[in-house]
Structures are given as structure tokens and as C-alpha cells.
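## retry 2 of 3
previous attempt timed out at serialization; input unchanged, resubmitting
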Amino acid sequence: MFVLVVLRDTLKIIPADFRKTREVAIKDAINAKYSNRVLHDVGLCMLVHDLVEIDEGFVQHSEGWIWIKVQFRMIVFRPFRDEVLVGRVRSAGDEGIDVSMGFFEDIRIPASEMPSGSTYSREEGVWVWRYEENELFMDLNEPIRFRVQEINFLDISPPRPKVGDADSVPVAHGPPFSLVCTIAEEGQLGAFARDLLTKPSEVRPLGKIALGTAKVAHMLESATTGVRAPLPGPQHQAVDQLKRPIVASTVQSKELESTLNVSSSSWSSALDKASQIVGDQGTKKLTDPKEMVGSELSFITDNLARLLESGHPMLNTVSRYYFSASGKHIRPLLVMLVAQATSIATKREGKTSMLVNSNIEQIDYSLMDKTVSQNIHSDGESQRVNQLMEDATRNGHGGRPYSPHIKDGLTILPTHRRLAEITELIHTSSLLHDDVIDHAETRRGLPAIQKRFGNKMAIFAGDFLLARASMALARLRDPEVIEIMASVLCDLVDGEFKQLRNLKDEDAPMARPDESAFSYYLEKTYLKTGSLIAKSCRSSAILNNTTDDIVEAAYIYGRNLGIAFQLIDDLLDFTVSSTTFGKPVGADLELGLATAPVLYAWQEYPQLGPLVARKFSNDGDVAQAWELVHASKGLERTKALAWRYASRAIEALAIFPDSSAKEALQNVTLSVLTRSK
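## retry succeeded, writing output
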């Protein structure tokens, strides 16, 4: 919307301005001459930004003025085509709507660019959009969002008359600079507050809503800085190819052997071979992910403790309990690596939310620790608790919470750091609740939280983690990221309900080990595990203001990695000891869950069907299922399926520009496949 334009001019400084400093006097002279002036084929000058070069001045002796040649940069209003802007309806007529942005009023939305079904009401003096049985009245002075279609300049300076031509020279009429815009698209263009009336316009005398006689529905939309309009990016077609489905029910262990040319029984050798496939010509060792993010990951436990400061000793102890153990921190690590990998990717221009800007030097990251609404201070208790949280986080991260981390030219912004912490809070809160529901004995090598503090404390602590994650998320001040991460909570609950579904019915989604059963299992796996990883990767790319192809590739990477991660988790439940795993093994069967190893074994041993249907609830069911899984190729086929999803994740990374962070993400993908806990 605004651009910097370099101009050069000779300016006069009048004697009255001699008392000012030279820079101030020059800037005042520039603003007096250029502000609110249209430069042909340039735009509307707003304000001088800075002075680039000042030459020696000379004095006009007859008048006492000083003339100075100056090169300067001017802030100019010059939107680009397809940019989405916000203004207010200034006037309306048969030919369309005129819009004002306060400082600029030559904006026209012609009748042809109104939404389909719109007509001009002469009685009301406004445009009305009719759809189904409702009417949307676009009143005067109403906020409206529109997209720029044409940028027009008209040279209104009179041409020089020819010598001897006594006739007057015609002057062009019309605004020197104007925009032609549209609100005809489906989506979020048009009025902000949409008043949907089920009664005819007679109930709107003088264009105002008669609340006593009309039913009003307010559909309020985000009032932040603009809306992220679609910006596909140069690789959107390649991204679309990554969305092709993976058919799980027919995966065979030999696929892993043929892909890597090693026996699937030698899993370690297979992954060594895989490292060569994604490495540089099969010889380059991939970047260590934790070395790549440096000290950022080492601060996360302390930063989380600061986010959870409550002023209540017991609540502090319970809410921080699982953070005292050495968790994998895979989710924060992914957020930071995606941040680095996308920091050099193609970006949008300008500012798309309060803390997202292509120029990070213009961002005040301390807003992350300040309230969005002053109303939170309306009572003393809320003010005290909020102040505790602000004071704790403001002094976190080694005393530099608002400084970007830059390594090898790759950047982790403070907002990425906070997103990583939010992701870990959401994940850990789900563990607290899961351990109560599943009657878990251990977690991360510690007694499960409810064993130590009781069910009530564990549930309240989980709720508290979600509450603090929500506050921190709101303070990122980006509606798209807030919506994406909030949807993760819905996914977690949806996944739990899918897991609880009765499997005995003939039409149940897992009544037989076919593709329908695998699709249901993998959808549940995505909702419970993959969603948080996928959507935090997407949000990390959004916070870098990248184009849609990069954002979507980040999501596809996270989605496939998340599913591969859970497949290996389901595999380890049959193959490692409780000491190594950090939690009881065989737990899935005890909980009545049919995971990928069981579904594949079921294809070989039909007698597993009744056990799955009754969720292994009879005596001897768990032991029998365990034996049949180990007797089948279920474990090898699960490895092969995990490799398929990991391969798709690595494919998605090809969309990112080459960097050490991209290599580290490849290494994370391979380490997920080789993990033992």
C-alpha cells in the first residue's frame, strides 16, 4: 500500500525557518511542497521518510532565501494491483460506490464489480446485496474491504500552446490519481459488519436498522492490518502434487527393501541408506538439528516455567511437573527449524499483522508480553496474575526475549520462539489429560502426574497449561495463527471421540482390515498427533510472512512427519521395554486400541477380528493379539508405511530453498524413524 520513492529537488528555505536545524527546515519544506500531492505515475505523496543527500546551499540575495539541492525518500501511497484495502463507503449511486480511506478518496467500485445479486436502492440511497431470503445493506460510512483492480493516472497539467495558437487549450478533467476496485469475489471482501435482515427494507427508515422490527445477525471479521489475500507463490503446482493420497492397506514390507536395497529386518541399515538418499550425492552428513537451533532449545524449559508463573506454589509445582523430566521437545524443535528454513523463502510484501512484517526491524516484539485488551486490568486479581506473567516472561530467554536468533543467515524470530513454547504447552496439557483417562503409571521416566498429585490436580494443571497457551497465542496478535492453533484443540478432542467409537457394529469404520479401516485409523492418528505438528509448522511459516506454497509445504511436511512419528510410536509399543520407552509397553492393546501393526496382522490372521471388535476386553485377548502381531508381518509393514509418510515429508522439503535448516529437517525426519523412545 505504501512505498518509498527516491526524489531529488531544489528547495527554498525562507528566513523564518533559519531558527530551525537544517534537517528539520528541509523536511518541513519538503512536506509543505509534496505532502498530499499526486506525482504522475508515482502516487500520492504522504510524508518525507528521510534525507539521503544534501548539497551545499546558495543564497538568493534579492530575497534572502537559501536554495538547497536535496535527495530524499518520500512515503507514497501507491497500492499494487490485487492488493486488499480497507475503507468506508463515501457515496453510492447507480454507477457504483465511492470509497474513502480518510487520506484518499478517489476510489470507485463500479456497479459491474458489486457482488452478484446487488442492486442500488434509490429509496435508501445505498446498495443492497440480496441472497437467498436475506438482504445486506451497505450503508454510508460503513467499513468495507475491497481489492484493487486498476490504478489510473491522469495528467491534468495543461499542454503548452503552440506558437501563434490563440485558442484556449483544453485541460483534462478528473482526479489525477484514482483506483478502480472490486468486491465481487466470494470470500471476505465487502462490508465488515453484515446486517442480514429477514424483513424487507421498509423496516429500515432513513437507512438505519430498526432493531425492534428486524432480526440482525452480526458477522464480525478480523479488524487487524488487512487480510492475507491468496498469494500462491512460484511452486504451488509442485505443492499440489504432494497432496496425492497414500494407500495404507496394501503396503508391503518389500517396498522398503526395494526402495533402499536392504533387508527390512535391518532397520538401522535401511535408515543409513535413507540418509544417503536425501544427503548431498550420498556423501554429506546431514546437519545436526539441535546444533542448528543452537541455544534456543536449551532455554525452553525455563521459558515454559516463566509462562506458567501463577504466584501459587502448588499450581506452579504441578503444572511444571512433566517439564522437569527430559522430554524430546520434538515439536518446539520443528517450529524453530521451519522458522529458519522459511526465513529465506519467498515472502509477501509489507505487514500482514501486528507482529508479522517483511521488515522485522519495524516490529516491537515486546508486545508478545503485553495485554491485547486493557479490560484485563478491570479487577485487581486479574491485574496481579497478568503482571506476574508479564514480569516473568519479560526477563526470560537469558535476558534477550525480544532478540531474533540468527545463524548461517537463517533467523528464528521471538514470535517463533513463543510459538514453540505454545506448541509444547498444548502437547503437554494433552498428556496430563490422557494419563488421567488412561490410568497411566509412568511418563517420561516419572510416576504419572495423577499418581503423584491425584486426578483433580492433574486435570486442573492440564487446563491451566491450555489457558496459558491461549493467552500467549492471543498475544502473538495474528488472527490466522490463532485460528490455526485453536483448531488443534478441536482436532485433539475429535480424535479422542473417534478412538472411543464402538467397533462392534457391522458398518463400523474398522469392522474389517480394509482401506476404510486404515483411513479411519490414520485420520484419528492425524487428529491426535499429526495435527499439532502440522499446524505448528504451518504457523511457523506464516509468522515469516511467506507465500502460500511455502506455508502449504510446511504443513504437508508436518502432517506426514506427524503421522510417521505416531506409526513408529505404535510400533515401539510392541518392540521395546518400558524402561527404554519411558512409559508402559503393550498399553495400546490394554486400552483396546487396534493400531497399524494389529490391522496388518488382522489381514493375515482373521481370528483377530473378534478381539478388535471387543477391544481386547476378554481374558487372554491381549496376549493372543500380541503373539499374532509378532507372528505376522505387521511390524515390518508398519515400518514400510512409516517410511512412505517420511518420504512424503522429505518431498515437501524440496519446496524450501536449500539451507542447513532444511538439511536438519531431513535429519529430524530420519531420526523419527530410528527413535527408541
